[in-house]
Amino acid sequence: MRTPLPPLPGLLAYEATARLGSIAAAADELGLSASAVSQRIRVLETHLGIALFERQARSVRLTPMGQAYLPTVRGAFDDLSAGTGGLFGPAGGGRLTVRVQVSYAMTWLVPRLQDFHDGYPHIDLRVVTAIWANEVPPHEVDLEIRHGNGRWAGFTADLLHEDQAVVVGSPAHLEAYGPLTGPADLEHRPRVHVIGYDDLWQRLFPHTPPPSRGAEATITLDTTVAAAQFAASGLHCALIPERFARAAVRDGRLVVLHDRLVPLRQAHYLLQREGEAHMTPEGRTFVQWLIRQDIEDPPLQPGGQ
Predict the structure, then answer these.
(1) Using CA atoms, how far apart are residues 117 and 124, in angstroms rounded to an integer?
(2) What's the predicted TM-score (pTM) here?
(3) Distance between CA 175 and CA 59 in Å, rounded?
(4) Which pLDDT does position 133 carry in this prediction?
(5) DSSP assignment of 27-92, as one string?
(6) How far apart are CA 297 and CA 33, in angstroms?
């Protein structure tokens, strides 16, 4: 027999209070009085036989059991929301606004969007980049994908993609210089550097020499998409996130020059503003689609791409 389900009003009050940090804020969101929210939580606690919150003078704090129960409740609400939207259509026109960084958009996301549109034509997807940071107010952004260490003030961040870097160059570079086998090979080999990834060459080869006087002048660019395109068009090699090189390697514009991937110290995270309501059905659908892209299109394997 199925275990009796907890009372839904209590679950809603518990989740909102945990997410917003106070009974008063949960009451505002749910359109109830603070005493009604508190009463619903007490009914839930009685049903479960445990205390979910420690009550203090002007605040509440989750107990260890209350903290442990929260992912289950949030996951159930998210699944119910996604399932309802998938079967009966999205509410409010189905718009989803996602903010991403330029390199992520141009090298990885945008080439796949036709697949997303074909599978979910009812979702009005709007992708914006940091270029339009001042044009799209924060409250209009449903989800954000950002590369970094996972810690940003005012946001909750969930790991989306772990990333590694790969050495790439054009077929002409490979013909002129051959594969990259060790730090000595870099002495006369032109390289493009990417701002923000300055330590990657040293992490690949701890004793990487600087470009010699006989090499072409070093070029420094501020985005990985620019570095990938520059490398594909000339004789400079680049060390860039594998995700951003994947399509260019598979269509022959770039080749992998070294048989080692370098783990990055940063990763791609999915951001939502702290205190936001649950992810919308459209947002959950988009995230599930992103995860499937990694499963269906695995990373490059140097030496056997």
Answers:
(1) 9
(2) 0.62
(3) 67
(4) 55
(5) HHHHTS-HHHHHHHHHHHHHHHTS--EEE-SS-EEE-HHHHHHHHHHHHHHHHHHHHHHHHH--SG
(6) 50
